Structures are given as structure tokens and as C-alpha cells.
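Minutes, structural biology subgroup

Action item carried over from last meeting: produce the C-alpha cell record for Cobalt import ATP-binding protein CbiO (bioreactor metagenome). EB confirmed the sequence was re-checked against the source entry. Recorded below for completeness.
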Amino acid sequence: MNLIYDICDYVYVLNQGKIINEGNVEEVFIDEEKIEEAGLELPWLVKLNKNMNLPLFRKEEDLYNYWSEHFGGNLNKIAK
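Output recorded by EB:
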């Protein structure tokens, strides 16, 4: 799911061959109930958004920049 979240703009969620959700990536992955219904797992950036009450980021770089601006330090060094 991380790769799908990273590279796709529009996605379909299927469950037993039927479309149960579709839309832009942010809209679809924020609907945790439909993701779980399809037996899928949320991408790590979406989990971070939900668990830490952070904005929803599409790219790791955006998270690193946000973290640096709001909390100081360089998260890029920590992540490597």
C-alpha cells in the first residue's frame, strides 16, 4: 500500500471483485473502514497522520520539512 500511496493519483479499492471505494489517494486512504474491509493496510504516512494527529503528507520529504519547521532538527538525518 505504501507504493500505491506514493505513485498513484486515483485508486480503486476492491473486495471480492467489487469496487467498494474509489477516488483520489488521500480520500480513499483516509477511509480506514473501507481499507480494512478490503483486507488492506494503511500506508505508513496515513497511519502517522492518524496516530500523531499530523497533517496528511503524500511524500516523506514533506513530512521531513514539516517536522523540521515545527519541531526543529533534521529528520532526514534520523531517517537515513
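Discussion: Residues 2-79 form one domain.
Next step: EB to file the record with the rest of the batch.
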